[in-house]
């Protein structure tokens, strides 16, 4: 069975880019449209992982081929972040997660206690801001799953995540990170032999998963940003303004539309940053692991020769 474990709807909130928060949302896709697109593209199961929200997921709850998810923003010291995909949760658990997401140790302990499958998303992506090595150690120590195939990130960034997962013995997942319908289901997670929703989720809990699908590219990132801008324009023109502030926001958005011409340059800069920033961070992380390996890495290296395997550097 396959499922896209990283996909957004219109309930993911505003973009985090400074200056654009009041103009653009992360996504303009309706939950039902996301669900139908995922099924049409071969997903056996569907979830939604909106940012710190299950509002879109609640609209699809009760379908036998759906389970609730969210992408939790785990806030670290001095405003740094880790993004954590959490699956098969309910409203009560969502509320508790929202309360704990500013305390990573408490959050990770709660996820383990509740046996909620949880995944560290795009750890080597520059899009979520600066990151210290201690942040990576904390995330990979506290979570059993690591996203190694993100459909919006370049192959080199995904390869860094895959290598980190191998070093730490973590299960690997895949998801499109779709913010538009065009990219839903382009990357996903396979559980071989699973025949039911329950069997799939059980494999997630055991970290017995395989990432699959396509990595991202400059062209995909550029077209997705332009599609988000088009969605914002449709939203501004298609509904009546709610108040004076909404009128002003829409006017500013429409006046800013000519700036779409600079999107290809902006996404080119971001694509290059993703490649070099992620690779440099992973090189530092690998060197730090070699200098002071955590217990599970030492155990892995100790057993590798007996199994006839090469120890991973």
Can you summarize the main beta sheet? 5 strands, mixed
Q: How many E strands?
A: 8
Going by helix content, strand content and strand pairing, the class is alpha/beta
The CATH first-level class comes to Alpha Beta
Radius of gyration: 20 Å
Rounded mean pLDDT is: 88
The end-to-end distance, rounded to whole angstroms, is: 33 Å
Question: CATH topology, anyone?
Answer: TIM Barrel
Strand order of the largest sheet: 2-3-4-5-6
Relative strand content? 5-15%
Tell me what the structure shows.
The protein has 313 residues and is α/β, with parallel strands linked by helices. It has one domain (1-313): Alpha-Beta Barrel (TIM Barrel), CATH 3.20.20.140. It has eleven helices and eight strands. The protein has a five-stranded mixed β-sheet with strand order 2-3-4-5-6. The chain has a three-stranded antiparallel β-sheet with strand order 1-7-8, with no helix packed on it. A hairpin with a 5-residue loop joins strand 2 (69-75) and strand 3 (81-87). The two termini are 33 Å apart.
Quick structural overview:
By secondary structure, this protein is of the alpha/beta class. 45% of the residues lie in helices and 12% in strands.
Question: Which tags fit this structure?
Answer:
single chain, 313 residues, alpha/beta, TIM Barrel, five-stranded mixed sheet, three-stranded antiparallel sheet, 8 strands, 45% helix, globular, disordered C terminus
């Amino acid at each position: 069975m396959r499922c896209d474990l990283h996909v957004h709807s219109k309930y993911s909130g505003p973009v985090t880019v400074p200056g654009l928060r009041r103009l653009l949302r992360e996504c303009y896709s309706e939950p039902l449209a996301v669900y139908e697109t995922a099924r049409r593209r071969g997903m056996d199961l569907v979830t939604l992982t909106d940012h710190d929200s299950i509002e879109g997921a609640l609209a699809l709850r009760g379908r036998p081929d759906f389970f609730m998810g969210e992408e939790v923003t785990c806030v670290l010291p001095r405003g740094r972040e880790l993004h954590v995909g959490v699956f098969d949760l309910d409203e009560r658990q969502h509320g508790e997660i929202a309360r704990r997401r500013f305390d990573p140790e408490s959050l990770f302990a709660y996820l383990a206690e509740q046996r909620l499958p949880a995944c560290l998303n795009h750890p080597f992506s520059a899009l979520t801001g600066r990151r210290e090595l201690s942040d990576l150690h904390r995330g990979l120590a506290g979570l059993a799953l690591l996203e190694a195939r993100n459909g919006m990130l370049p192959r080199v960034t995904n390869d860094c995540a895959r290598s980190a997962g191998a070093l730490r013995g973590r299960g690997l997942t895949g998801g499109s990170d779709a913010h538009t319908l065009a990219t839903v289901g382009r990357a996903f997670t396979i559980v071989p032999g699973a025949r039911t929703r329950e069997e799939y989720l059980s494999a997630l809990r055991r970290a017995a998963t395989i990432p699959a699908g396509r990595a991202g590219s400059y062209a995909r990132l550029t077209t997705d940003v332009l599609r988000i801008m088009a969605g914002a324009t449709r939203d501004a023109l298609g509904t009546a303004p709610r108040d004076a502030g909404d009128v002003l926001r829409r006017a500013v958005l429409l006046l800013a539309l000519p700036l779409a011409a600079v999107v290809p340059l902006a996404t080119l800069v971001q694509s290059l940053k993703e490649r070099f920033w992620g690779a440099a961070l992973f090189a530092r992380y690998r060197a730090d692991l070699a200098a002071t390996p955590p217990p599970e890495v030492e155990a892995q290296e100790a057993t590798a020769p007996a199994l006839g395997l090469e120890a991973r550097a």
